[in-house]
Design brief:
This protein is mainly α and 235 residues long. The chain folds into two domains: 96 residues, Cytochrome c-like domain (Cytochrome Bc1 Complex, Chain D, domain 2, Orthogonal Bundle), CATH 1.10.760; 95 residues, Orthogonal Bundle (Cytochrome Bc1 Complex, Chain D, domain 2), CATH 1.10.760.10. It is 42% helix and 2% strand. The protein contains eleven helices and two strands, in the order ααββααααααααα. It has a two-stranded antiparallel ribbon with strand order 1-2.
């Protein structure tokens, strides 16, 4: 797409603040864009150029609003930086994390100094974290932005997605999906399940107990169970 190529050129040509590494090559910039769009689900919530979600701040100009230390820290562990924020910690190889961090403007020459400066700042306001077994509260925090509070696929971010979010209240559809499939999609994201890559992976932030609570809540929304062959004890 023409706008994508132009976007890459603009990013490569952006001036970097003192302490930043050299600008990324066009190849590295295109790779970082692909990782954000097609692998890690970041564009499910964030906007990059002309595409992406509307639940979180845009990524293409984050370097103009946040310093390098903040960008590096929020990518590394969002919950440690902003407890209760609805941004999952994404599990990825260090090489991918470093590339994405540089792409967004979080690479600094002396990372130890940046980390120490950031650690000494006042902590951000926190949002109460739902208890492990409170599936409804967990769903409101992590899922409702796209799937809607009642699971009808009508969350405020739904219209920004290229693939409509699953309607968890749809018994006919959800009764065909095993609990294992629901668990794995929440844990690992949509891309690894051959579904929308805009569905991020939440397994880096949610415990197995919390994911099971979300699966149970989804079952309460559809008032259905999975296929008979998939239920424990029926094989």
């Amino acid at each position: 797409m023409r706008w994508a190529l132009a976007f890459v050129v603009v990013l490569v040509g952006l001036p970097l603040a003192v302490g930043h590494a050299q600008p990324l090559s066009p190849f590295a910039t295109a790779k970082a864009t692909t990782l954000l769009r097609d692998k890690y689900g970041c564009l499910g919530c964030h906007r990059l150029g002309r595409e992406g979600g509307q639940l979180a701040p845009a990524l293409h100009d984050v370097r103009s609003r946040r310093d390098a230390a903040y960008i590096a820290a929020i990518i590394r562990d969002p919950q440690r930086l902003r407890p209760g924020a609805a941004m999952p910690r994404t599990r990825m190889p260090d090489s991918d994390r470093q590339l994405i961090t540089r792409f967004l403007g979080g690479d600094v020459a002396n990372r130890e100094i940046a980390n120490r400066e950031f650690a000494n700042r006042e902590p951000a306001a926190t949002t109460p974290v739902p208890s492990d077994g409170n599936g409804a509260a967990l769903y409101r925090t992590w899922c409702a932005g796209c799937h809607g509070i009642t699971g009808r696929g009508d969350g405020p971010n739904a219209k920004a997605l290229p693939v409509p979010p699953a309607r968890h209240a749809d018994a006919a559809t959800m009764s065909q999906r095993p609990d294992d499939t629901l668990y794995d999609t929440i844990d690992g994201g949509g891309a690894i399940m051959n579904r929308s890559a805009r569905m991020p992976a939440f397994g880096g932030s949610l415990s197995p107990t919390q994911i099971r609570a979300l699966v149970a809540h989804i079952r309460s929304l559809c008032r259905c169970v999975g296929p008979a062959w998939s239920r424990d004890g029926t094989r």
